Amino acid sequence: MKKLISIILAVSMLMSVVIVGAYAQDDEMSFAVASDLHYVEPSEPVEHYSDDPIFYYANRRAQMEHESGFIIDEMLRQCAENDDVDFLLIPGDLVNDGRSIFQQHIDVAEKFAKFEKETGKQVYVIAGNHDVGYDSATTPEKFKEVYYEFGYEEALTIVEDNCSYTANLGNKYRLIALDSCDHSKSTEDGMTTEKVQWVLDEADKAKEDGRYPIVMMHHNLLDHLPVQRIVSRNFIVRFHYTTAELFADHGIKLVFSGHEHCSDAATFTSALGNVIYDFANTSLSMYPLEYRMFYMTDEEIRYENKKITSIDTEALAEAVPDLTEEHFALMDEDFEEYSKNFFHHGIKYRLSKGMTMEQMGIEEDAVYYNVVNAAVSGLTDMLDMPFYGEGGIQELAKEYGLEIPDSEYETPWHLVTSLVGMHYAGSEYYDLESTEVTMLLRTLVLILRVDIANITDALYLVNLANQVLSNVGIDSISDELTKLGIKVFGSVNAIEYAVLGLISPILYAFAYDDDGVDDNNGTLPGYGTVNVMDNLTNIYVNIDRIIDKIVLYMTMMLKYALKGCGFTVAA
Question: Cα–Cα distance between 340 and 335 in angstroms, integer?
């Protein structure tokens, strides 16, 4: 009896979603989504973060702060001239320092007001973690005041104690703008059962009114990195699978988010076969300088990325006189390439800054200070080494039994920042057989081997022995022993295979996007296509995809484990 009741309830929930299709009208709605604008007023003197002659001002967040206002202007200009843009959605982080500088919000609101006045196109915003703080220059109340014309004026409902609201979009959609932030903290999400229930209630109201619900929030609903809930937990909502399940089964098909600064489309299928898509959007003011366009009908959801390929460099020169003619010439020649180089230098600065004993919180009097310092120093030194030529990584790798393939990458830093840039740009396509992943894995093994040598050298007794033996031409006991071990025991030892076995599935998921949904340009089933038969198909496809992924990951891990134990495994 209980089983029969469960089946009846499941069918009822399915039918409640299907009913939404009865309200459909076949007119198209199209709009733009631009996230994480991170507006900063240009200033001088420009801070120097490195000795690079051009990209010395590339900050740790790789954000083009001085250029941000002009990038926003160009995005708004493109939207104004694009007849397909009915309105514009902004999923948070409108400014960079909203918690401390309220004027930044005033500046951005003025840009939006000018855009709306000149075009008649509506802007809808929601708060991000950089925008609002309970005890800051911009409280939720002040945020709603300064952006009153951009969603709140047209709102059907406004939540009193945060920045959430709902508004109608076109003839048949409803925007649920959810404030996902905890405004008492920095980046962490503020999702609560009350907020989730509010979304579900508003989605139900939308269906009752014959409208399809769309959610916009700052934090990600789904994983846009491998195991994001672990490695980047402040960027995704807590209990995200449960939340996605509830959202999907209440008729929500589209979620627009930001925060992670990547162009990534993730999908989730509920137990009832309802599919929801979370479109994480890049930061407009950093590489790849993109926003999205969406074209909606009952039958399909089509989307594509739009690029910022130029800005008003004459206005930038007036605002930031510290920058040189060479800067502006390079921007005018190829602004996308300029932003990519800025990104590479910024990411390198960020990662290298974190790889110091001070940043890791290790004091000099710690018993393991010398060991860790040697390992970190060896890692940073190798990342700066050239891949090719005399004394390069390729030459060093041969001494340790490894072959580094030829490529266009100049240094490991160049490779690492390129892979990170690929993640931000979306549509990752490097599988485990690619040159990039091969180089990364082999460089990792090389770093492990060299670092083992360096760590051993850091130990007192070995250092003492090295001092004695250096007089007879042997500079490093551990270095010689490591090379000897390679000759005797083969190219990769069990420990290294164990490390590769653990990292390969994560690296695969990071470098190769295989979820079946293109991140940047694609077509999906529309809201009006939801029905029982399609849901049953979705369930089957989802189970098949999960099984395939489990088999793939287990195969990779088992392959390395067996090799590490000395077994021969076919490629």
Answer: 9
Q: In what order do the strands lie in the sheet with 290-296?
A: 122-125, 87-90, 29-33, 290-296, 300-307, 522-525
Q: Is 427 left (phi over 0), alpha (psi -120 to 50) or beta?
A: left
Q: How confident is the model at residue 560 (pLDDT cuts 50, 70, 90)?
A: low
Q: Quick check: helix, strand or coil at residue 470? A: helix
- 219: which 2 tokens? 């934090």
Sign (positive or negative) of CA dihedral 550, 551, 556, 562:
positive
Q: Tell me, what's the pLDDT at 420?
A: 87
The CA-based dihedral angle spanning residues 233, 64, 59, 237, taken in that order and rounded to the nearest 10 degrees? -10
Per DSSP, 467 falls in state H
pLDDT at 495 over 80: no
Examine the pLDDT at 173 and tell me if it is beyond 50: yes
Q: Residue written as tokens 């009865």?
A: 22
Listed residue (96, 201, 84, 198) closest to 138, CA to CA: 96
How far apart are alpha carbons 21 and 526 in whole angstroms?
A: 10
What is residue 446's predicted lDDT score, i.e. its pLDDT? 81
Q: Is the pLDDT of residue 218 over 50?
A: yes
Which two tokens mark 519?
Answer: 């991140």
Q: What domains lie within the chain, and their CATH numbers?
A: 2-330 (3.60.21.10), 365-564 (no CATH)
Q: Determine phi and psi for 124, rounding to 5 degrees.
A: -120, 130
Which tokens belong to 323?
């920058």
**267, 516 in Cβ contact below 8 A?**
yes
pLDDT at 387 over 50: yes
Could you say which DSSP state residue 198 is in?
A: H
More confident residue, 553 or 78: 78
Lowest mean pLDDT among 136-150, 210-224, 367-381, 473-487: 473-487
CA-CA distance, 110 to 103, in Å (whole number)? 11
CA–CA gap between residue 63 and residue 76 (Å, rounded): 19
Buried b (16+ CB within 10 A) or exposed e, 448-471: bbbbbbbbbbbeeebeeebeeeee
> Of residues 520 and 8, which shows the higher confidence score?
520
Residue 546 is predicted with a pLDDT of 63
- This model's pTM is above 0.85: no
Query: Which H or E run includes 143?
Result: helix 140-146
The proportion of the chain whose per-residue pLDDT surpasses 90, expressed as a percent, equals 58
**How far is it, in rounded angstroms, from Cα 106 to Cα 97?**
12
Q: What is the spatial distance between Cα 211 and Cα 218, in angstroms, rounded to a whole number?
A: 23
Strand ranges (E), 91-245: 122-125, 157-158, 165-169, 173-178, 212-217
pLDDT at 217: 98
Kindly give the interhelix angle for 193-208 and 240-249, rounded to the nearest 10 degrees.
20
* Residue closest to 424 by CA, chosen among 536, 259, 571, 541: 259
CA distance 183 to 118: 33
Q: What is the mean pLDDT of the chain?
A: 83
Report which of 250, 245, 163 is spatially closest to residue 203, judged by C-alpha positions.
Answer: 250
Whether the Cβ atoms of residue 108 and residue 40 lie closer than 8 Å to each other? no
